[in-house]
Structures are given as C-alpha cells and as structure tokens.
C-alpha cells in the first residue's frame, strides 16, 4: 500500500512540474544570427518606454539603443532578445524600430530551458 502511495505522489509531482515548466517557456523556437546565438542580428532603437513583467525582460526608455541577438519564432514571434549595456532580456518587437541589420541570414532552432532563466543577485532563477 505504501508503495502505491509513493508512486501516486511521484506521478503527481512529475505532472505538476511538467505543467509549471511549460509556463516558463515563452516559445519552443527562436531565430539567431548563428548556431550559438552569439552574433548580433541587428541594432534597434526604442520607440517607447518599456517595463517588462519579470526579470527575463529588458527594460528601456524611448530612444535607447538595443542590440538584438535572437527572436522567438513560430508560436510567439512578438518577443526579441537583446542587450542594452550590461542588461539583457526579452522585449516586444513593436516597441523598437530597426536601425541596422547586421546579418544576412537567420538560423531557426529549438529554444532551451536556459533561454528563459532570470539572473538575480548572481543566481539563476525561474520566475
């Protein structure tokens, strides 16, 4: 009887963790300038102030320059990732205008769980 209860608890934990994990992933696909997503894709300028909902997002003010490194694709094409100084995160593509394209071709690939980590106080956290 104890073993059955242990198995049920384990199944419940697996089911719960799978549903929680699915809320962390913003998209299963992304586009980058190279297979490692290290090459800058474009330089954009903020057309509006933006304050993201959590630490995965890049906050900025109108007129600030952002370097884009990847774009979520397929089910969520509205979010791009980029950096402004030392800050890095997601932002809506309609909050910026492209100033300069830096690559010739985009590479589409699967995202990883690590694409959606927050860096707070030198520790990685999921929101």
UniProtKB/TrEMBL annotation:
It comes from the Eukaryota. GO terms for biological process: endoplasmic reticulum to Golgi vesicle-mediated transport; protein secretion; vesicle cargo loading. The keyword Endoplasmic reticulum applies. Residues 1-22 form the signal peptide. Keywords: Coiled coil, Endoplasmic reticulum, Glycoprotein, SH3 domain, Signal. InterPro entries: cTAGE_MIA/OTOR, SH3-like_dom_sf, SH3_domain. One of its GO terms (cellular component) is endoplasmic reticulum exit site. Pfam families: SH3_2. It is a single-pass membrane protein. PROSITE patterns: SH3 (PS50002). The keyword Glycoprotein applies. Residues 39-101 form the SH3 domain. It is found in: Endoplasmic reticulum membrane. This is MIA2 protein. The gene is Mia2.
């Amino acid at each position: 009887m104890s073993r059955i209860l242990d198995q049920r608890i384990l199944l419940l934990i697996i089911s719960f963790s799978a549903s929680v994990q699915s809320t962390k992933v913003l998209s299963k696909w992304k586009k980058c300038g190279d297979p490692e997503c290290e090459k800058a894709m474009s330089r954009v300028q903020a057309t509006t102030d933006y304050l993201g909902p959590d630490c995965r997002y890049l906050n900025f003010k109108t007129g600030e320059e952002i370097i884009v490194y990847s774009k979520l694709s397929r089910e969520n094409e509205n979010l791009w990732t980029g950096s402004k100084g030392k800050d890095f995160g997601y932002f809506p593509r309609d909050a910026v205008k492209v100033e300069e394209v830096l690559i010739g071709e985009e590479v589409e690939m699967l995202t990883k769980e690590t694409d959606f980590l927050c860096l707070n106080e030198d520790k990685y956290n999921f929101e």
